[in-house]
């Protein structure tokens, strides 16, 4: 620990200097910046990334070796902060790396949770167990508390009419009111410095933590009544205690809502403070900063900015609205209905009474302008479609609607997803504002996801291309295509995969005491949050089928088989019963298969617990086949699919999300595709409903379900819910895709027998992944949405 800390502090020192210089320079230049607000930032480990970005890895290696330490071992001592659930949070982290690398003036704003995503382990029955992740127990040198930045955030209370101090009159038409909160919590800034690769520019990720109000200098903020503040102390600190563990599901808890407001209120205060520091008027906010809302979680920023502009800064409503729309843009990451946030009007009225009024006013003005009030059904229908406020089981605020109406641009994260947004989810808005809806395809940082996690492949690419330019301009990878058939290159390429697989093999042995092969074994990996739409269930059921097939084979037939290690990892939200059952089933199946002497090393199924960024960095470079098998139309993009192709894994995928971009860019002949297209989904679902999924299910899958029901993997009652779903409606159409999934596996096994073909596909995949860099993504955002330009620190000669 000591060496790790000492090493880390030397890096932090350097970063602090660069960071100071960068911030001073941005201020001096008065450049437009982007603020990326996200309730999650899944950063991964810091030290290696920083050392590589500062181009100090060789120096540190040498220096530490001189003292008897191995840098790689020091890296392993670092904890991996889990301040995010999955794709959305990790995307935000990739963006920060790119923004710094390409010298964009940028800020990340998020929350410093006391506890990250729960730690997962697997119980003796194969079930998921959860433990609190008390990450702040250990020192974390890369985050510094900024003592100068403490901001009071109000909640609850009352709203009073604004009275003009001169005329003593209330003015209805001004739309102005005074909010008097009854509770305050302090937002404390904690800064993580973000280094770029090969540049001195160092940006800020500012994470807010909640503190009780007594610690504040009361006089400084004249907010009035602080009576009862001591009772609020515990409540206050509770606010940023825990990251909600749901991924792609909106949990309607009051505390979650408070977190969201806390994040945006502190952030807007901070942005406006910095604008005022430059002595610029609020009218200039859209030229000072673009603010990107990462999904709807920070959309309360829209009414909050309106409140500041109208109530505090005395700006006319219409002018304030123009500023607001120009400042914000919103990214949608999901169309799953259960993930679309809707908050009860009652709850908002209680916690943020003034904001509720503002949301109503925004809605009213919008509806006045865009829909005729008529009594006929058609105009009523249009109004209820457009309205931010929904009347269903309760009166609810649709946060995605608020995001659309309050932003100048709304983007999806892959072409198919953006089209679904434009033509289905928000079709009523896109006919009002056809230009508002755009696509910005996701990307991943090639620094962490190739250069750092797969150093041998990185070196091979650099020596082959005779340049390391690809690290910050990934389009250069296309030149690798020339080498796809080259025997010598293929051998080197394959040897690196082998090396990475050995590393993983050692890990599996150490962690689980399990022996897995490396030579001539296909490593087939599916790692992501466990969710029905991602169809891990289809994966495990297919291997139950394969297992049963092997059991029927003669020794001769078995000799013809390809060996496979199936690896699955990912957490289930603690309240998501079906997902937890899937984990249990995977572990039960794994136990049976791995211990069956008739199977030997033909098939192994391994569930790796406590999936994290760090584990991804180990698994991805070691993968031969990576699975991205969501029901078409459900996975907005996926980003690990990109990381895998970059590292030479071949995709086994459906026609969904960014898989489609992979197919388009590297050619379908280099991807193992299967299943139906998104356009066919509704028909299949309809059939399932009409005829019953069981009746349409292939015999192969029926047989597998039969075996589970016989109790082969323990009491079938434990899996009843997921079995019933499959036999009943089968919402994610596993039955329909099962046969072609098995067929794709056959094609994989055949292709594996032909190494030249295999490695050619693998190389072409990597060569065709230049587009998958988050550098390209950020350039798209900067040009089409944010209107910001790089601002590199001048080099000191
Ligand atoms: C909302 C309300 C209350 C509690 C939790 C939530 C919540 C939290 C996280 C809702 C959704 C999320 C996460 C969504 C997510 O990770 N989406 C993924 O975003 C990736 C980046 O764009 C895409 O690649 C994935 O396809 C998408 O699933």
From TrEMBL:
Entry EC no(s): 2.4.1.1
Statement: the UniProt record of this protein carries the keyword Glycosyltransferase: yes
The keyword Coiled coil is assigned to this record: yes
SUPFAM superfamilies from the UniProt entry: UDP-Glycosyltransferase/glycogen phosphorylase
Cofactors demanded by this protein: pyridoxal 5'-phosphate
Origin: domain of life: Eukaryota
Catalyzed chemical reaction(s): [(1->4)-alpha-D-glucosyl](n) + phosphate = [(1->4)-alpha-D-glucosyl](n-1) + alpha-D-glucose 1-phosphate
Annotated InterPro entries: Glycg_phsphrylas, Glyco_trans_35, Pyridoxal_P_attach_site
Keyword entries, A-Z: Carbohydrate metabolism, Coiled coil, Glycosyltransferase, Pyridoxal phosphate, Transferase
Transmembrane segments: none
PANTHER family given in the database record: GLYCOGEN PHOSPHORYLASE, GLYCOGEN PHOSPHORYLASE, LIVER FORM
Family of this protein: Belongs to the glycogen phosphorylase family.
Known role: Allosteric enzyme that catalyzes the rate-limiting step in glycogen catabolism, the phosphorolytic cleavage of glycogen to produce glucose-1-phosphate, and plays a central role in maintaining cellular and organismal glucose homeostasis.
Protein name, as recorded: Alpha-1,4 glucan phosphorylase
Upper lineage: Eukaryota, Metamonada, Anaeramoebidae, Anaeramoeba
């Amino acid at each position: 620990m000591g060496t790790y800390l000492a090493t880390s502090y030397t890096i932090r020192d350097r970063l602090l200097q660069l960071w100071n210089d960068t911030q001073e320079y941005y201020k001096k230049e008065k450049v437009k910046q982007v603020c990326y607000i996200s309730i999650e930032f899944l950063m991964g480990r810091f030290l290696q990334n920083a050392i590589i970005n500062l181009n100090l890895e060789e120096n540190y290696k040498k220096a530490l070796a001189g003292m008897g330490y191995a840098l790689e071992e020091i890296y392993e001592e670092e904890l991996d902060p889990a301040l995010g659930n999955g794709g959305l949070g990790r995307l935000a982290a990739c963006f920060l790396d790119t923004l710094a690398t390409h010298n964009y003036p940028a800020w990340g704003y998020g929350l410093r949770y006391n506890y990250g995503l729960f730690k997962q382990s697997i119980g003796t029955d194969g079930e998921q167990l959860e433990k609190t992740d008390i990450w702040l127990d250990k020192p974390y040198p890369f985050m510094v508390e900024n003592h100068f930045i403490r901001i009071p955030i109000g909640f609850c209370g009352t709203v009073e009419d604004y009275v003009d101090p001169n005329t003593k009159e209330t003015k209805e038409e001004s739309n102005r009111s005074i909010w008097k909160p009854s509770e305050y919590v302090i937002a404390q800034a904690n800064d993580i410095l973000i280094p770029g690769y090969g540049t001195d520019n160092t940006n800020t990720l500012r994470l807010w933590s909640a503190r009780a109000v007594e610690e504040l200098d009361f006089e400084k903020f004249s907010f009035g009544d602080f009576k009862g503040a001591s009772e609020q102390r515990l409540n206050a600190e509770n606010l940023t205690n825990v990251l909600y563990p749901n991924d792609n599901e909106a949990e309607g808890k009051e505390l979650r809502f408070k977190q969201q407001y806390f994040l945006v209120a502190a952030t807007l205060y901070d942005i406006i403070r910095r604008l005022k520091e430059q002595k610029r008027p609020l009218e200039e906010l859209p030229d000072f900063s673009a603010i990107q809302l990462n999904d709807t979680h920070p959309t309360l920023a829209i009414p909050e900015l309106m409140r500041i502009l109208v109530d505090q800064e005395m700006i006319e409503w219409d002018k304030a609205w123009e500023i607001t729309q120009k400042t914000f843009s919103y990214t949608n990451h999901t169309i799953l209905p259960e993930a679309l946030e809707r908050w009860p009007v009652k709850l908002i009225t209680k916690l943020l009474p003034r904001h509720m009024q503002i949301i109503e006013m925004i809605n009213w003005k919008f509806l006045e302008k865009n829909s005729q009030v008529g009594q006929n059904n058609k105009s009523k229908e249009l109004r209820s479609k457009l309205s931010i406020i929904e009347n269903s089981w309760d009166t609810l605020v649709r946060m995605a609607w608020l995001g659309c109406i309050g932003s100048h641009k709304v983007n999806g994260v892959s072409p198919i997803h953006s089209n679904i947004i434009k033509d289905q989810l928000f079709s009523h808005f896109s006919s009002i504002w056809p230009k508002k809806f755009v696509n910005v395809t996701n990307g991943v940082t090639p620094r962490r996801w190739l250069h750092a996690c797969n150093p041998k492949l990185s070196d091979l690419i650099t020596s082959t291309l005779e340049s390391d330019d690809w690290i910050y301009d990934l389009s250069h990878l296309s030149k690798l295509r020339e080498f796809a058939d080259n025997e010598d290159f293929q051998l080197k390429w394959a040897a690196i995969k082998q090396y990475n697989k050995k590393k993983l093999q050692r890990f599996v042995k150490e962690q689980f005491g399990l022996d897995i092969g490396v030579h001539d074994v296909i490593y087939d990996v599916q790692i992501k949050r466990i969710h029905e739409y991602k169809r891990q269930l289809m994966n495990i059921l297919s291997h139950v089928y394969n297992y049963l097939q092997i059991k029927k084979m003669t020794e001769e037939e078995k000799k013809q088989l390809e060996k496979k290690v199936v690896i699955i990892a990912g957490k289930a939200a603690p309240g998501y019963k079906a997902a937890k059952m899937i984990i249990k089933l995977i572990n039960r199946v794994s136990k049976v298969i791995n211990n069956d002497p008739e199977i030997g090393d033909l098939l192994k199924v391994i569930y790796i617990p406590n999936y994290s960024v760090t584990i991804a960095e180990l698994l991805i470079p070691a993968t031969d086949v990576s699975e991205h098998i969501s029901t078409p139309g459900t996975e907005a993009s996926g980003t690990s699919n990109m990381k895998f192709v970059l590292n030479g894994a071949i995709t086994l995928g459906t026609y969904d999300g960014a898989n489609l971009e992979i197919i388009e860019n590297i050619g379908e002949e280099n991807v193992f595709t299967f299943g139906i297209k998104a356009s066919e989904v509704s028909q299949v679902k309809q059939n399932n409903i009409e005829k019953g999924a069981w009746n349409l299910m292939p015999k192969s899958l029926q047989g597998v379900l039969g075996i589970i029901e016989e109790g082969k993997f323990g009491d079938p009652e434990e899996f009843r819910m997921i079995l019933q779903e499959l036999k009943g409606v089968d919402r994610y159409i596993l039955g329909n895709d099962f046969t072609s999934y098995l067929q794709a596996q056959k094609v994989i096994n055949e292709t594996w027998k032909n190494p030249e073909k295999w490695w050619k596909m693998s190389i072409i995949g990597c060569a065709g992944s230049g587009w998958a860099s988050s550098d390209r993504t950020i350039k798209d955002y900067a040009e089409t949405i944010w209107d910001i330009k790089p601002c590199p620190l001048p080099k000191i000669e």
